[in-house]
Design brief:
389 residues; EC 3.2.1.18; Sialidase; 5-stranded antiparallel β-sheet; exo-alpha-sialidase activity; 41% strand; Sialidase_sf; Exo-alpha-sialidase; mainly beta
Length: 389
């Protein structure tokens, strides 16, 4: 579809898919919509959050949300939940601290991810509409980014997976010194401490998945565009092993992993890598870097940008995430992402997916569609095993 075709279909209305699922393009007033997050509230309402504006990194990028009430076939009109005129507000994450829901998100000036602030706001759902309270800044080092769900440790501590965009004095951020860390809070998110994941340079978007007993695993997007990486914790999330590659290729784009009710792990991602495509771009923000004459950061790892972000696939593991042999395509396109532009039709990415299992074993997926819209797909129970195709 062209950008105009996509815009005409951004109604939030669910329609049937040939595979037995349903889908919709969520409504939004903005021309760029990216980085979906999906969660279910206590009354069964689904909430999808994302960031929208004209171009990632621009100061008009804000957090938006839409909801789907139980039994409804149409997503609600979008609401804006943040509006800082000086920073690009990105990567929304909803978390419940045991008392109320909170929205966490990033806020950066232009493409300078190493100058990012983390902010939190209380969130209320009333009659299907989300509203946000006043923001507060999280006391973590500049350049702390989030993307994944928070996890509770057995001792009650709240774990927030973080990737750190490490500042390099006099140099421009390019992802070459990004590392993973876990921020922990013992007071429901009022204060945080930070612990680094060893050997994690280039391993970002840490997603923590509790297994049985004290065992947890984490999965990582890779700046080097090689493979999804995995690390382990055998002490309930207190310490982590160095990330090691799985068998799933990664294109330096976001992934999401959950544990299903049947014990299997499900990863939604683009199983592509630098080895599968020659496509390259200079950096994530090369379209808005005019006037910034600093040299790119040197040393660290060698990030690879521009590898196509497609297909969008669901991958299943039965061995705790060491291998993912069962894979099915949810959506496909050329995946072209050599530009972040949402209006000229060059961008064809299906990216930044988020996954949620329903109470009946069905699956809810939300992801970026050509940077123009957020697409929602509902897959019935058994879809991954081919039982409903």
């Amino acid at each position: 579809m062209s950008p105009d075709d996509i815009a005409r279909n951004m109604t939030g209305q669910l329609s049937d898919r040939p595979d037995g699922g349903r889908q919709a393009l969520l409504p939004s007033p903005m021309v760029q919509n990216h980085a979906a997050f999906i969660e279910r509230f206590e009354d069964g309402t689904l909430a999808c959050l994302w960031f929208g504006g004209t171009l990632e990194g621009k100061s008009d990028i804000s957090i938006f949300a839409s909801t789907l009430a139980p039994g409804s076939d149409t997503w609600s009109a979008p609401v804006r939940l943040s509006d800082d005129p000086n920073r690009s507000e990105q990567n929304p994450v909803l978390a419940h601290n045991g008392h109320h829901w909170q929205l966490f998100h990033t806020a950066q000036p232009a493409g300078n991810q190493d100058e990012c602030l983390l902010r939190a706001r209380n969130i209320t759902l009333t009659d299907g509409i989300l509203t946000a309270g006043e923001p507060r800044t999280i006391d973590l080092p500049l350049g702390s980014f989030i993307r994944a769900r928070f996890v509770r440790r057995a001792d009650g501590a709240w774990m927030m997976p973080v990737f750190r965009c490490i500042p390099r004095p006099g140099q421009r951020w390019n992802g070459s010194h990004d590392t993973a860390a876990v921020a922990t809070s013992h007071d429901d998110g009022n204060t945080w401490t930070l612990e680094e994941v060893p050997g994690s340079i280039g391993s970002v978007h840490m997603t923590i998945v509790p297994l049985d007993g004290n065992e947890m695993v984490a999965f990582y997007r890779r700046r080097q565009s090689d493979f999804v990486h995995r690390s382990e914790s055998q002490d309930g999330g207190h310490t982590w092993s160095e990330p090691r590659p799985t068998d799933v290729p990664n294109n330096n784009s976001s992934i999401n992993v959950i544990r299903l009710a049947d014990g299997r792990l499900a990863m939604v991602c683009n199983p592509a890598s630098a080895a599968t495509s020659p496509d390259r771009r200079t950096s994530l923000y090369d379209e808005i870097e005019e006037g910034d004459d600093r040299p790119d950061a040197t040393g660290g790892c060698a990030p690879v940008w521009g590898v196509p972000r497609a297909p969008l696939s669901l991958c299943i593991s039965t061995d705790g995430g060491k291998t993912f042999p069962l894979r099915r395509v949810i959506d496909d396109s050329a995946g072209t992402c050599l530009s972040n532009n949402s209006e000229d039709g060059r961008n064809k990415e299906l990216s930044y997916p988020y996954l949620l299992e329903g109470e009946d074993g069905d699956l809810h997926v939300a992801y970026t569609y050509f940077r123009r819209a957020i697409k929602y797909v509902h897959l019935p129970k058994g879809w991954i095993d081919g039982e409903t195709a």
